Amino acid sequence: MLWPAKSLLTLITFCGLLLLTHLVPALKDYRLMDWRTVPSLLDFVSRTRSANPESDEQLRLRPDTDALRQSKYPIEDDHHDLDRFYQSLHRVEGGEGVVRILHYGDSPTTADMITGDVRALLQKRFGDAGHGFFLIAKPWAWYSHHGLEIHGDGWFIDPVNQSSVKDGLFGLGGVSFRGAAGSTATIVLKGGGHHVLEVAYLRQPGGGQFRVEAGGVPLGWVNTNSSELGSGFKEFQVDPAHREFTIRTLGGPVRIFGARLERKVPGVVYNSLGVNGAYVSVLARLMSETHWTEQLRHYRPDLVIINYGTNESAYPQFVDTASAKELREVVRRLRVAVPGASILLMSPMDRGQRMAGGEIGTVPTIPRLVAIQQRVAHETGSAFFNTFAAMGGVGTMGRWYEAEPRLVGADFMHPMPAGAKIVGGLLYQALMDGYVKYKLRLIQSQRLALNSSRPGPGGQ
Question: Which pTM does this prediction carry?
């Protein structure tokens, strides 16, 4: 039986495009398939299976997981920049306040991988103060936030690095949502209730209106019309029993940046701020500094994590000539906007590639980029976490790809959920190691202060 001519032609064209990216060197960054992996589909040799591969990998990387002992790959913080963050954690551990963390990253964090794992661990230890910030619709099909279901309809969605809108106004999370009458966003909570729902939007001349509902009942409406452009925030008190919220545009142009859910209890809020394809220039150049400053000051972070590098690693010239300058600019902007916040530069994970011999090695730019970020952290007085080294260094993605089940996808770049859980656990452990050391220094300083206040021999 012959295939239909159109179907056969489509198949031939598709295969031709796949081959073209391998035949033309200039198109190498657009390759969708590594043909050398095809034989592995026919490889039925049984590999040792594990019921819990992420635990096995954690044990290999960190046989000693006692938080009271020094991490093999601790956070580098010679200037004690994280002390302000640790001080906030200490207050929360005593039952007071909320610690807010902003984690900027690239594609893995758009699905709340790594970030969701760290959030769960911190909230388990210090208290759950809510989901924090999230986008109101899916800019990418895989976008998610653990514990939430998000459905949007009728929005023009503009990620900061893929937008025809060039004004730099993209809110906290780097995405804006433009809607007219009838655009809706529905958020469904899978777990416990919250006390506060806040919507972040753009105040603008001629702006329209939107309404916020809980379980179909209106909570209030917002008029976004303003004489000049600016950040707008509207907070609604909600019943903890409510599990479903809807944002509905009523008329006129409306531009929304995201929403925030929090509880009025002590604990941690860990905001996952991933943008697909993001790189350090997103924060250094593409986001308006004035607007981003407004956003940062409103959300009052205790810690800001900058976690880029995977996408930059495909461009050696950028890595070697521009990445350090761009990263310094991000730190400068943060120091101006939120001088009381701690800053942690978090290196990219390993990124694998097929080598000449067929094995999976590390992209050569990754170690260089990690070293650059480490140097910038030291120069700017920021903390640094070497994700690349902590997860195993050169060749890690190859080992993870050969694991059963696999811990990384076939692009040797994006972790599977089990792999992301490992990275999240390593970051959490490093933060807790630093926190324990902070408390030990605090105890020692208090003891010294107490001893110095005591009268000496013969004193009154």
Answer: 0.85
Would you tell me how many other CB atoms lie within 10 Å of the CB of residue 391? 23
The gap from C-alpha 232 to its chain's centroid, in whole angstroms, comes to 23
Please, are residues 277 and 309 in contact by the beta-carbon 8 Å criterion? no
Could you tell me the CATH number of the domain that includes residue 260?
2.60.120.1360
- Amino acid identity, position 318: F
Asked if residue 207 and residue 333 are part of one domain, the reply reads: no
What is the Rg, in whole angstroms, of the alpha carbon atoms belonging to the chain? Answer: 24
Are 115 and 305 in contact by the 8 Å Cβ rule? The answer is: no
Q: What is the pLDDT of residues 301-317, one digit of tens each?
A: 999 999 999 999 999 99
Here the tokens at position 350 are 């390993």
* Residue 285, domain extent: 53-129+265-447
Could you tell me whether strands 254-262 and 175-189 are parallel, antiparallel, or unpaired per DSSP bridges? Answer: antiparallel
- List the one residue out of 155, 76, 91, 108 whose CA is nearest residue 411: 108
CA distance 71 to 225: 52
Report the CATH number at residue 373.
3.40.50.1110
Sheet holding 342-346, edge to edge: 267-274, 98-105, 303-307, 342-346, 383-385
Residues 186 and 136: their CA atoms lie apart, in Å, by: 7
Q: Which residue matches tokens 């120069």?
A: 379
Residue 353 CB burial class (10 angstroms; 0-12, 13-18, ≥19) = middle
Question: Is 36 within the bounds of a domain?
Answer: no
* First vs last C-alpha separation in the chain: 107
What pairing do the DSSP bridges indicate for beta strands 217-223 and 175-189? unpaired
The pair of structure tokens assigned to 210 is 């939107």
**What local confidence, expressed as pLDDT, does residue 445 receive?**
84
| Separation CA 126–CA 49 (nearest Å) | 35
The residue-averaged pLDDT of 93-100 equals 96
Q: Are residues 354 and 418 in the same domain?
A: yes
Looking at the fold, whether 248 and 189 belong to one and the same domain comes out as yes
> Are both 82 and 190 inside the same structural domain?
no
Locus of tokens 């790809």: 401
